[in-house]
């Protein structure tokens, strides 16, 4: 077969180099085959539909956890600031709950 002949020829070319050249040539051949050979679809099959890019959304529950921990520390040092952190955490929890309810419907 033609592919086997080309493979033998490629092996002979790679074997003529020094040890470091052989490794580099082998990697080059593998990279070229991987990147340049286009896979062929069987006839009658449809192309894959384009995939949508899913971006990570804002997670209010994660922010609420951080605000609760910060508020727990700051309520001891600065009571008003700590209570405001707790209030912010409560707002984030409500926001997260409402976002999850409306996202499912």
List the helices and strands and how they pair.
Elements: H1 2-15, H2 19-36, H3 60-77, H4 79-104
Helix pairs in contact: 3-4
What is this entry, summarized?
The chain is built from 4 helices and no strands.
Describe this structure in words.
- With 105 residues, the chain is an all-alpha fold.
- It has 2 domains: 2-36; 60-104.
- It contains 4 helices and no strands.
- It has helices at 2-15, 19-36, 60-77, 79-104.
- The longest helix is centred in the last third of the chain and has 26 residues, at 79-104.
The count of helical stretches stands at: 4
State the end-to-end distance: 60 Å
Give helix and strand order, one letter per element, not per position: HHHH
The major sheet is characterized as: none
> What's the overall geometry?
elongated
The total beta strand count reads: 0
Seen as an oligomer or otherwise, the chain set is: single chain
Secondary-structure-derived class: mainly alpha
Residue ranges: pLDDT <50 for 5 or more in a row?
none
Over all CA atoms, what is the radius of gyration?
30 Å
Give the strand content. Answer: under 5%
Average pLDDT value? 82
């Amino acid at each position: 077969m033609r592919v086997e002949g080309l493979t033998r020829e490629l092996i002979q070319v790679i074997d003529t180099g020094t040890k470091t050249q052989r490794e580099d040539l082998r990697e080059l051949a593998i990279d070229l085959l991987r990147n340049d050979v286009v896979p062929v679809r069987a006839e009658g099959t449809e192309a894959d539909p384009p995939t949508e890019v899913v971006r990570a959304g804002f997670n209010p529950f994660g922010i609420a956890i951080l605000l609760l921990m910060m508020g727990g520390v700051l309520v001891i040092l600065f009571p008003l600031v700590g209570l405001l952190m707790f209030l912010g955490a409560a707002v984030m929890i409500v926001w997260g709950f409402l976002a999850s309810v409306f996202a499912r419907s």
